[in-house]
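Risk register update: the risk of archive-format incompatibility is retired. Evidence:
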Amino acid sequence: MSGEHALVDTKGKFVQVVKDGRKQNDIEWLPGRILLSNKRLVLATDDGKRTIPLSKLTSVTVSQMNQPLAQVEGYVKLQAGRDAWLVSPQDSETFEEELYKTLLDQIVVLVKHPALKGGVVTGATWEKARFKIDEEQEDTVNIAISSGTFVELDIDDVGTVVQKQKEIRGKERPLLEVEHTIDGTSVETHISGSPRHVSLIDGLVRQGEQRNAANVDLSPEETQVLMALYSGISPFKIPDFVDMDIDEVEAVYDRLMEADILEPVRTRREVQLEARGRSIAGDAIADQ
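Archived output:
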């Protein structure tokens, strides 16, 4: 192929789980060679090979081990039209990085940023932006907006991701609402584009949401403190804001830090929400 160059050549396992729209029974992992170029993915065994043009991929999602497929530690699910494969390369980190970079680096999307700040709707409007996978900082996406704003999106910092359809610039389009932080404040960046691009971006940024899933039971006091921090209240003003003693708030901070919901910043009583904490706080506010 003209202009084609190799990106990854590794061993691994793979299996086709959907063929022509039908789920396959008797799933069996095949050991073989996994070759990724900037044009295609080749899954090769001693019995032959399967070639998947990258232009045909409509969805890429990364999953950790689940019980029915416990022969591998993790895998990448690739959707191409009515077919789907699970691929588990030995060098999974490099494979995932190069695959997403090839599919998404330098694409042009529509962005509204920040659409929400501290849970409050802003006056931001939709603008064109260029999407870039950061080569130096792992799990980081850079979004350069046409007006000059630059957004650095740390995937590990993503709290929630919501995908929906909405009328944007007079046309019904797919939309991603991505919650993350800037300078310790919760914000939402909204991203729209072609259905394929939005689906691929969703698979990338949702990795952060999965890592920070809000599965934890909190006391009313802990929830109250989280919601206050989520709304942008200074950690030093939390005791007065929630009408609790300083020692009580300190104890709440300690419990939330142990649960990886808060992280300390500089001094003991200055804290900020982790992505997991923002996810929990966002859910709590939505339930009010």
